[in-house]
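Most newcomers find our protein records easier to grasp once they have seen one. A record pairs a protein's sequence with a compact description of its fold. An example says more than a description, so a record of this kind follows:
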Amino acid sequence: MDRTAPRRSAEPRLPRILTILAAAAVLAAVAGAGGGAAHEPDDRMPAAVTMDFVPPPPGSYALNAIMPAPNGPVLDRDGRRRPLARFTAGKITLLGFIYTSCADPRGCPLTTQVFHTVRHRVAEDPDLRARVRLVSLSFDPRRDTPAVMRHYAAEVPENGVEWAFLTTELPRTLVPLLDGFGQDVRVEVDAHGRPAGPLAHVLKVFLIDARGVVREIYTTSYLYPEVILNDIKTLRLEDGTARRAGP
């Protein structure tokens, strides 16, 4: 895409996850090892990020089709087993991987705060409100049970914009999703193979169009609500153009 800011059209997919397959068992152990207190979403405060550029207006650029969004079984906050595709098609979707005990202010809490801001802004736009969803998918399935995700979502006020909080049954059902999205996760272990610290991951957020195709990948450097909103509006304008063109 052609951007005014020095931004790549799509972050390159990382190599296949180097440690997650070997660490699946460790992920389970991490859950038993405890962790920091879960951070609560706060819809009252804007995300603490400042842009040093002006994003181009919606529709003045194109978003490339990067890849189909991976699919696999997930659990919703009520513990119901659903295909992830249920939450990545039919609407423009913003999806981020999190874990609820993350205490890094530039990690999961930042993602969640940006999601709150985007959701609030989308709710104010009648053209977008019913056409956009947010998805927070945990990569700590042993600790982030459906009940934990339900508690984590309890503070999110209803405003007409869908926000799904998902987890998976076991690490082995999570691994193909992480691998498919190119979401890296590391587990630090001590000399005895025991978890020695929190989960480490590269912050990534995925913008997925209504057909289930990933169209943008944001990292910390570009996780700005204004940029995301312009990209969402660009996809919405693209949908309108396609409908007018017709078959």
Residues 225-245 form the longest helix (21 residues). The chain is about 30% helix and 20% strand.
